[in-house]
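Sat 14:20. Reprocessing the chain from the morning session after the first attempt stalled halfway. Input below, unchanged.
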Amino acid sequence: MLAGDTPIPRDGGGPVFAEPWQAMVFALVVQLQERGVFTAEEWAQALGAEIREAIAAGGCRDGSDYYERWCDALEHLLIAKGLASHDGVDALAASWVRAAEATPHGTPIRLENDPQRRIG
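Finished this time. Tokens:
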């Protein structure tokens, strides 16, 4: 479970998500924490660092980029633990962009739609 003091936008007591991906990254962080990949303290430190860095760089102070900070914190925490690499994350992100560009409007974007995807 997330640390009790982890700030999460709430409405009526439950988390608020403007987009499905926000709920997905939230759930991913909770699952990784429950499985012992990182502790609540490690997560709080990583997320806090990302929020402080974003604010120092002139980022949103209204919280509208909150879940982007979750993504950044998760990425950096997994890299720090040796479970991901900068190159691997960048390559996967580029693959998703190519897949999105190759996917007809109105159909789900799937990684296998990346025309440069290597199979096997």
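The mean pLDDT is 87.
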